[in-house]
Amino acid sequence: MADKGVVVITGASSGFGRLAAGFLARNGYTVFATLRDLTGRNAPAAEALRELARKESLDLHAAEMDVTEDDSVEGCIRDVVGRAGRVDVLVNNAGFGYIGLLESFDLEQARRIFDTNVLGAHRTIRAVLPQMHRQGAGLLIQISSGAGRVVIPSMGLYCASKFALEALTDGYRYELADAGIDCVCVQPGAYPTEIFEKIETGADVARESAYGASRELANVIGNALKASTADPMDVPRALLDIIETPAGRRAPRYRVGRGAPGVEALNALSAEVQEQIVSAFGVAELTKFRSRHRP
Ligand SMILES: NC(=O)c1ccc[n+]([C@@H]2O[C@H](COP(=O)([O-])OP(=O)(O)OC[C@H]3O[C@@H](n4cnc5c(N)ncnc54)[C@H](OP(=O)(O)O)[C@@H]3O)[C@@H](O)[C@H]2O)c1
Question: What's the DSSP call for residue 293?
Answer without folding.
Answer: S
